[in-house]
Write a structure and sequence with these properties.
nine-stranded mixed sheet; TIM Barrel; Immunoglobulin-like; alpha/beta; eight-stranded parallel barrel; hydrolase; GHL6; hydrolase activity; 17 helices; Rossmann fold
């Protein structure tokens, strides 16, 4: 018996030690202040460890991300297949940078990019490189895109990483542009699915002898199998990398854009080349990642370049400021990426922003990074990097909620099956044109609906699952793609549509699906015909078509509403309040208590982010009990849709927030001054006299 007790005691202490060691991993603190110096080859001739460290210290950075290898080695590599930077003069410069950063308590993550090899290596091993269905290579000057299944990525990359780990006491590795390549993003040209012989052989082994597809067609079963092949092979490589790195040192963090076998998920806030610009890019990226992958640390980088073709011109300082504050508000540390080091930089306008925001984060980091959501609504995202019309629909729905100051979480569509209890805990889930969900995710949504979760879906959501559309929404598709330009919608039931005083017809454009809603309990928003276009003398004829733009199905404990229209896209592109009010009125109909949980007179262009927080201190890492709530206010009044100006100060902001318990004190983080507040029946009320660019209000 005594031996059994000793064994149990030993196992308990081992498990406790392992848990403690996991908590001691340096990145788990989630207080990153990263500056990435993406060095062009020629800067290797002039980089200086002392100036780099001095600039990092001046910016309150605690992590440097800098080139090491892959495309080219920024150190004296001994591997003949690793192309050495020809401008490198000081063989000790990377070692000096790592050492001097560590002397100043700055972590160093080194960058690898295994997407390309130099022409010299290509000529020796053309079979290592990408080849398109037309027999084309992807080339950038003298760099050739490689094939992920060829020996360079599958074997040589590991030797390069091992050489760096064995040579330098690094704190992390960052993998840029991992995975399969089909584009030349630097020139904006699509080339197609890689037809390298190694890819052909491995796909044949995976698929039972099938040939690689040559077109990306989601309706093609072969392409769907190829997507599974890509996922499997990328994860296999990532797992092998994880085993190698952790066998060398558990304290080396792995950072890239995916989640499997990764410690830090990196995302990017990039400038847009199409209008309207998206000022919520950091809130979008971080909100998606922290809720979809709650066990990971997220680092969202503000990319300073305007585009791949305009790397030497940075985005506006006000855009950078918004991105960094949104990072803080949503639970990421700070992260920015620039071309080269900070000395002699081609566009230094944002440098004061870095110093100010990074310094603010350093001073107040105990209040950042350990957050819990207060949201009762979830918006499902079409992946981690949405694009095209689904992106516009998704952003438009977000925009409506953000402008109305309604707290919500973002959950990636592919993660629903991994977050079952979390998903079932929401009171409302919105599906903005989420066209495909895995069977397991559909089951979870159905069970959530049965338990009391309301659903709202828009446009072509779930079109590939007719049974789900019928079961959840009582809807059948007659024509999912239908140009709605010229049609009108009638806000008929004013007990639901309370925001349309003085309006009887709402204009439409973009998609207006024609659905049979006979299985719904209510059909609303009658669709009027296009009528007679022309001069004023002949217009009219907007008669009822018999179709409706909203169906509501009542379930025993919830409601499910389907808008078979581009509701989000039309607001994202045009911004007419009537379209936003359709969604807001429906939310109020389903969840009238939402409006009472958080009330403010803040303008729509003041972004509000409310979170529960736990003090983020070294001794508090195992604690999850909230210490209070924190309200972040980001002033976007300087954003005009196509540029960023300095924000206008906003005065006399008032807030009314439901809290679980009365706080002992309320204060601002910018100046740590107390705010007077009143408390009544579980609700706190306070005012902020003036908002400049940003504020955090702590209630603890």
């Amino acid at each position: 018996m005594k031996s059994h007790i000793l064994l149990l005691y030993f196992l308990f202490n081992v498990s406790s030690l392992l848990a403690q060691n996991k908590a001691d991993l340096w990145w788990k603190r989630n207080n990153l202040r990263v500056i990435q110096m993406n060095l062009p080859a020629y800067e290797a001739a002039t980089i200086n460890a002392d100036s780099i460290v001095a600039d990092l210290v001046a910016c309150s950075a605690n992590t440097l991300l800098i080139n090491a290898g892959g495309i080219m080695a920024f150190y004296p590599t001994q591997l003949d297949f690793h192309y050495r930077n020809p401008y490198l003069k000081d063989n000790n410069v990377l070692a000096d940078i790592v050492r001097k950063c560590h002397d100043n308590r700055i972590k160093v993550i080194v960058r690898f990019d295994f997407s390309r090899v130099h022409e010299r290596i290509f000529k020796q091993h053309p079979d290592w490189c990408y080849i398109s269905p037309k027999g084309e290579r992807i080339i950038n000057t003298d760099m050739y895109v490689v094939s992920i299944n060829a020996p360079y990525v599958q074997e040589k990359a590991f030797k390069i990483i091992e050489e760096v780990i064995n040579t330098f006491p690094i704190d992390g590795i960052f993998l840029n542009m991992p995975g399969y390549q089909v584009n030349n993003p630097y020139e904006g040209k699509y080339h197609g699915i890689d037809q390298n012989e190694y890819d052909k052989k491995r796909f044949a082994e995976f698929s039972g002898g099938k040939a690689l597809p040559t077109e990306e067609n989601k309706a093609d079963p072969l392409f769907q199998q190829y997507l599974g092949f890509k996922k499997t092979t990328v994860e296999d490589w990532s797992e092998r990398l994880h085993k190698l790195v952790k066998s060398k040192n558990e304290q080396i963090a792995i950072c890239t854009y995916s989640d499997r076998f990764v410690d830090i998920i990196r995302h990017e806030s990039q400038s847009m080349t199409t209008l309207p610009y998206w000022p919520y890019t950091a809130s979008d990226n971080v909100g998606n990642a922290v809720n979809s992958f709650p066990d990971h640390i997220i680092s969202n980088a503000s990319i300073q370049q305007i585009s791949f073709q305009s790397r030497y011109n940075a985005v506006e300082p006000e855009e950078t400021r918004i991105r960094l504050y949104e990072n803080i508000a949503n639970g990421s540390g700070l992260d920015m990426s620039m071309m080269g080091d900070m000395r002699g930089y081609e566009d230094e306008r944002s440098f004061p922003v870095f110093r100010k925001v990074y310094g603010f984060h350093k001073k107040n980091e105990a209040y950042f990074g350990k957050y819990q959501s207060v949201a009762q609504i979830a918006v499902v995202a079409p992946g981690a990097w949405p694009n095209g019309e689904p992106m516009q629909e998704y952003r438009g729905i977000q925009l409506m909620l953000r402008e109305a100051h309604i707290p919500f979480d973002i959950v990636e569509d592919g993660q629903i099956a991994n977050l079952e209890q979390k998903v079932k805990g929401y009171k409302l889930i919105i599906l903005p044109e989420i066209t495909y969900l895995k069977p397991e995710a559909i089951r979870i949504l159905k069970e959530a609906s049965q338990r009391g979760t309301h659903l709202i879906a828009t446009n072509r959501a779930l079109f590939d699952s007719p049974e789900t559309l019928q079961a959840l929404f009582g809807a059948k598709i007659e024509k999912k793609d239908n140009d709605g330009a010229g049609n009108y919608l009638v806000p008929d039931d004013r007990s639901i549509f309370k925001s349309f005083k003085g309006q009887n017809m709402l204009f439409w454009k973009f998609n207006l699906g024609l659905y049979d809603l006979s299985g719904a309990d209510r059909k609303l928003l009658p669709v009027l015909a296009k009528g007679r276009p022309g001069p004023p003398e002949i217009i009219g004829g907007h008669d009822a078509t018999g179709y409706y733009a909203l169906g509501i199905k009542n379930h025993p404990n919830s409601k499910a509403a389907l808008f078979p229209i581009n509701l989000g896209r039309i607001y994202y592109m045009h911004g007419y309040q009537e379209h936003k009010n359709l969604l807001l009125d429906m939310i109020d109909h389903m969840l009238p208590e939402i409006a009472q949980n958080f009330e403010t007179n803040a303008p729509a262009r003041v972004e509000t982010v409310l979170k529960r927080f736990t003090r983020n201190t070294p001794e508090n890492q195992a604690k999850n009990t909230p210490d209070g709530q924190i309200l972040h206010l980001i002033n976007l009044t300087g954003f005009s849709g196509n540029t960023y100006f300095e924000p206008l100060p906003v005065n006399d902001l008032r807030f009314r927030i439901r809290l679980a318990k009365k706080p002992q004190k309320v204060f601002t983080l910018t100046n740590h001054k107390p705010l007077n507040f009143t408390w009544k029946d579980g609700t706190i009320m306070f005012s902020l006299a003036r908002l400049a660019e940003f504020e955090s209000i702590v209630m603890e």
